[in-house]
Amino acid sequence: MPDQTCAHIKAVTTVKHAKRRECDECVKIGARWVHLRTCQECGTTLCCDNSPNRHASKHARASGHPVIASAEPGERWLYCFPDDIFTEY
Known about the structure:
The protein has helices at residues 7-10, 24-29, 55-63, and strands spanning 36-39, 45-47, 67-70, 77-80, 85-88. By secondary structure, the chain is an alpha+beta fold. The protein has one domain (7-88): Herpes Virus-1 (2-Layer Sandwich), CATH 3.30.40.10.
């Protein structure tokens, strides 16, 4: 299956990786998360949509930062929220 790409993903020239293994926002409120995602615009690491607080998608909507990378060990993919596209790297 060929990778689909969009202008937002093509604009990512260097993938930003998580600096810490925790959701920045969940830590502030004492919440738990399922998986982590790293914003490719600002580098913040937040929880996924399977997590109760869905901080990564909330961040994307509020900030206009469109692309996240999985922050999970062994996963190498990007996702664009506005275009609903995944691609591996």
